[in-house]
Write a structure and sequence with these properties.
Layout: H1 9-18, H2 23-35, H3 42-48, H4 53-68, E1 72-77, E2 83-88, H5 91-108, H6 116-129, H7 136-143, H8 147-162, E3 167-171, E4 175-179, H9 182-195, H10 212-227, H11 235-253, H12 262-269, H13 273-288, H14 294-305, H15 317-334, H16 342-361, H17 373-376, H18 378-395, H19 401-418, E5 423-428, H20 433-447, E6 451-457, E7 472-475, E8 490-492, H21 499-509, E9 520-521, E10 527-528, H22 536-550, H23 557-564, E11 576-580, E12 589-602, E13 605-614, H24 620-634, H25 637-646, H26 649-659
Parallel strand pairs: 5-6, 5-7, 7-8, 9-12, 10-12, 11-13
Antiparallel strand pairs: 1-2, 3-4, 12-13
Helix pairs in contact: 2-5, 3-4, 6-8, 6-9, 9-11, 10-11, 10-13, 11-14, 13-14, 15-16, 15-18, 16-19, 18-19, 24-26
Amino acid sequence: MSAYGVMNKEHYTEIVREKKMNRKSLLKLVKTLNSEKRNYSSAECAEILDMGVSTFKSRMKEINSELRRNGALIESKSGKGNGYTLRIFDRKTFDRYLKEILPEQAKKERPDFTSREKRIRYLTIRFLEKDCFHKSDDLAESLGLSRTQLSNDLAMVRQELGSYGIELKSVPGSGLHAVGEEGRIRACLANALMKNERSHLPVEDDQNLYPQSVLYRIHYILRDFFKETHYQLTAENIDSLGISLVVQYYRIKEGCRIVYGEETIREIKALPDHAFAGRLAERISKELRISFDESEICYMTIYLNTRSFSLLEVNSPEADDLVSEMLDRLVRIRAIDLRDDDHYQQMLRLHTAELLKRIRFGTKMSHPLVTDVSIKLLEAYDTAAVFASVIYERYGYLLSEEETGYYALHTEIALDRRRVNQKNILLINADTRSNTELLRYSFEKKFHDQVRRLDICDVIDLKKRNLGEYDAVFSTVDMPVSPAGVRMPVYRISALISGKEKDLVRKVLSSEAIMDSQGIDFRPELFFDDIDASDRGKVIHEMCGRIAAVESVPEGFEDSLVVREQYGRTVFPAGAVFLRSLERTGEKTILSAAVFSHPVDWNGEKIQMVLIGSFSRTDTKSCSGLLKALSIFLNDRKLVSGAISACSYGSLTEILNNCSY
């Protein structure tokens, strides 16, 4: 459902028709018709089955074919009191179908809740979709969890809700109840729905408030409506707006409305997007038979105004000034200068101008595509976190991971444009002029696109070389062991460089064994397998003390690690933690690692490995290489599990080197 610009009526009908019959919905319909002594309209039956009226009517034959085999039929009556009713002609067979067969089929449709992330999303939706209390026993049963497991999940839900200013209150005798401002509840709920893997909808259960038919109908309305406007239509925008309108629609049906004061309404009505929002609300009201009051239209206006839907040119001196400060600070504390990238600055200004509107109106941006950026694009996200610190200091507004993630995506593109995959090469050769010239000619001809600098020396002259200047070393003479001071491997080749040797050189030049780099200090003394600490604070303090005993670290290093955590996740899905400071202030890049025999509690997560990095303010190449390798390592459960099981400096070094290839 991303290509909304090409979705036509036939496509819409096909999607709904092909939707699999939900056994829980069918069970609910049969139970309802069996217990209620009245006729139900086709619209009521269709809503229970989560499909459109025309689809319900076309499927009646299929439904009755199944019911007839089980002792009942759904019959349609015309005239006074018309509608659908259930006629049972074999009570024994029907009772078995209703009490055993259909419930068992519905039970098999239970979603897979083995993933904690899915459970957190499910619970978040459950708490926010209805303004009611939820009992812990009911939640534990629906998820198939013990009370202890549920308690651990609820801690994460409280953290998620808390980021939106929503409190999960526990009332004895009643249960759990989410309390917060209506706008914040809608934003959090929309974010949870956008993250959902099942067509952006909540997991199906008996309490599901969001039938796909409503989402499809809203998307279809938007597709037609946007054709008539000057607004830009993109799949991402329609995804986001569609979910927001679904949430707004059902919250209104629940009696939960946005309420703005008169002054705020006057301010919002002055925005150019208000007239558009009014027309859109009118169209949805007509199609879905729901009313939008002035506050709800203003809510829709704010959503449009803060998400770059309009094609109108953005002109914000405040955003320009803020972006300039961001880029200046990036140079000052991380030695990364992107001020000459005009395209990058333009994208930053556009996003920042919309961000300032969201700060002004107290709204948040949500999009599932950027939620994992903080753990998959480490260097870009750390760079974006610098921008987040500037915004926090100026406005007291802490960016969400999604907001920071958007900055990180643009930053990754800009950084990628700066990366040049060329290396400095040292060739060790026999001391003959003709042989040396042949080797130089052969190497430059075959690998000129991958070589920035090529130096040749003999074994004796090798001692005079500053080996820290080179990325790889090749030799045409046998060298049983690496020369002193050469931490990277020395690769044996011939002067003519044969076919297999050519493949080897290409592979070496296309990769980098990052842990063998001269610019990174990771040695056995910085690997700890004997730290006995029970919580996050003690682990950080113990590791920083041990690092300081071996290496010189910047003043206030321990405090800087704690500050960095507020700008993005440091716990990775594979069960490891990576801590680093926001600023690059070290003389060199240092990596330290600790593996624990028993899991340590880390803000509600159980982890067994912690990595701490201190990055050089001058050697940006080593920093980038290490962050790239760590990004691959920390997002691979098998690699992290293998490193924890091996629990050795050598194994971790080898794994990180492999991640850099």
